[in-house]
Amino acid sequence: MTLYTRSVLLSSAAAMAIGLATFGPVPASAQTDQAGAAKDNIEEVVVVARRREERLQVVPMSITAFTATTLQNAQIQNYEDLQRAVPSFTFNPSQRSGIGTDPTIRGLPGVVTYFSEVPLILGNQVGDYQALDNTVEIDKGPQGTLFGQNTTGGAVQLRPNHPTNNYEGSVQALFGSYNWQRYELVANVPIVQDRLLVRFAGAHDQRDGFTTVADTPYAGRFEGLDLDNRDSWYGRIGITVRPTDSIENYLVMDTTYVHTNGTALILDEINPNKGLASNVINFPLNNPPFAVASPFYFLSLQKQLGIRHIIGFDPAISLGGRRVTYDYPGPIEKAQNYDIVDITTWDIGDDFSLKNILGYVNGRQLTRQNFTDTPIVAASFSTPRGWNNATVGSGFGSGLVTQYTEELQAHGKLLEGALNYTLGGYLLYSTGGPEAGQVTSSSAALPSQLLVYTGGGQTSRTQALYGQADYDLGSLWDALAGLQFTAGYRYNWDWATAYEHQGVADIALVPGLTPCVAGVGPNCGYLSNSGHFHSPGWNLSLKYQPDADTMFYVRSSKAYRPGGFTPAAPIAADQAYQPETLVDVEIGAKATMDLFGMKAVANVDAYQGWYTDIQELVIGFVTINGAKNNFGLTENAASATIEGFEWEGALYPTQRLELRTSGSYNHDYFTSFTSATYGQLAGLSFPGFPHLKLTAGATYHLPVDEAWGDIAARVDWYYQTHYLDSTDNGPGTTSTHHLINLGIDWTNVFQQPFDLDFFMTNVTDTEFVTAAFPLYNQEGFVSKVWNEPRMWGIKLRYRFEPASASEAAPAAYTPPPVQAPAPAAVAQSHMVFFDFDKSDLTPQAVSIVDQAAANAGPAHVTRITVTGHTDTVGSDAYNMRLSRRRAESVAAELEKKGIASSEIEIVAKGKRDLLVPTGDGVREPQNRRVQIVYAGGATS
What we know:
The protein is mainly beta and 940 residues long. It has a 22-stranded antiparallel beta barrel. It contains eight helices and 46 strands.
């Protein structure tokens, strides 16, 4: 099938999705009025995919975004929850807390998480702070220009809410199944109005586990330990300082601490002809460490009965079910993060600004996991305390990583606003590795295996220059009105060094040798590699916006992931691997419409990508003193094609009902992949990624009396098809499965700032695999992580209503006379009113501005003048800034609705200018407004 044919098919399918589906989570859930009915206007979500604030519906790329409120309502607390609401987004954590696991988008691993515009090098170990006072944005596809740090798959942006000029906040408590307790606090304090603002956020999440360590002679003090539990703390403080009207500094500091009993692994398959399994199966019944109570007693019995082929042996059925493990020693998951981000913005003029982003990330983690779910892995061990202990076991890691980033951006407009550009330079330096040595081994009990010390780390440095510009082609020729062309280019230079220590760690296995401890001693080896990589990235897009509510686009991008090293590879030529690259093409449409009298939002896209020099982890083998040991080796082993389509949106059949759905179909496959270990794998689908994902949901606001507040019932359904565990596991797959979640949200209980919510996840208590350790061809084992069982909880939330800071005394001056209302002849003017001391648009104000934008087209407007008027309380300087912010808020909303910035003129009026009437019923009835006036059109 040709690319053209595939593109036509995908485009047709996408168009059908627009016409037939009810659309999903693109917009945030509709807001509710006091009677509980959904508002006519759909809440606009602002994104920063192009490093500036824009309305989601006008950005020419596939994006899913959630506000903090939407995350709360949908019970999205971490990436595992997020994958069920975002098309093509998958997260299969081998550690329940997400430590050390990155998500994939469209099957691609190059996904970087950004916190306040700074990349997080330890991926998702930050825990669950998506759900806490944040906006979450998922930018899909290669981000080769503006987010160039390894983002071949896409970017996940966590944007904390900034401090405001209001005294506001909330406290929340959750109580649920498995002794679940979660507490959250958000507090905003304007210390000096408009000059020094502070915002706090914090959370503590604790819940018992749902898997138990079985009673065996080797369980010891781990007997009865509950695994898959939760225990995390999170805290954040954000400080905004405005020393002058044109300079703003935002400093945010956050910390996360996670310490759980670890994740349960359940043994799923055994291959008696490989690695450890071949040794275990030959152990007689009375040979320690195996005893009758051990799961391997069953295997030995099978051996004595002459049953050799036991692939598919399922201890979950034979030995107690999915919620019982024979893990020994007990696992552990522990992580701690410190992040500091400082963002300084300097508005040098109306059309030029500088922005500096300085970031510091410090992360450490300690994990231990038994890949075989049996007592075989370690005969002796020491429980890790702190971060530095070495242990004997399998899957133990202790690490400390530090990262520094510096990014300088210039944003501006040229050609009367027709050209918007961003220029930038980027620096990154990171260093990391185990804080102390770690010991790994297949087994301390088997004489054919060596207990080997390994320890190491890496340092990396990145430099990049980039630029991107958007040009309004309608400024050249009226026939091109609505067309915008975007072009961006980035060049990255990367330096990397990797090192590793190796050596025999147990002299009992090899008499006469001095043990290798902490990488020091005569039997310790030191391996090191370093090198330099570089590559360009780019982005090209063309969008057409015929009106404020409809947009079509085509986009193409290139991004790359730097190369690296495997110092332990015995062949020098195998020690380095080169960068991998992805080039894609994406077409899409975004629309807000009236569908048979119903409000609807629909976003759809189709894409195809060419993935080359893919960095794949393959298994190599090396013989030490006659013993065969395996090790991971990364090679540029494959190329692949990625193609598919996605949709999401919402439909509002009535004022009270919201219907939503989303989904993705992905066809990802290796076009070439020859492995010395696994053979020819061309045509194999990407492991860990389903072909089809579907969601559907509904929210209904009950017709209760207004005095009760708003009561809304919510149901969400999620479905995904099976996928391969890994290229190592051959036919091993996870199963197709679905989930149902329910919720009841009671907002403004009896018209008080109090909310009461009930939720239940996995209502049908469905069981399915979320991750696997497919050591099938290495050691003969496949162990798997199973999903969470049914959970329920009740949330109680009290909101501190926004309140303005103390109003300053009126300045001592004689005000000018009140200006008469504008004459009726100015038919094309609109008045937008504001609350005292506020520049945020109220829902009523948004409705007025949107109507002004909708009228601009029929009036053939060539210029709109937006004039802000301020309050008369406070200093002249403060009120002038307030006036301008009000005008800018209106202008930004006009731009979101498709009005070109080149057609908008912003004027700010101070309190010494002529006073003007404002809305009825306000305490200070003058000047609190913005006026929109059309000019230049034939019918204006």
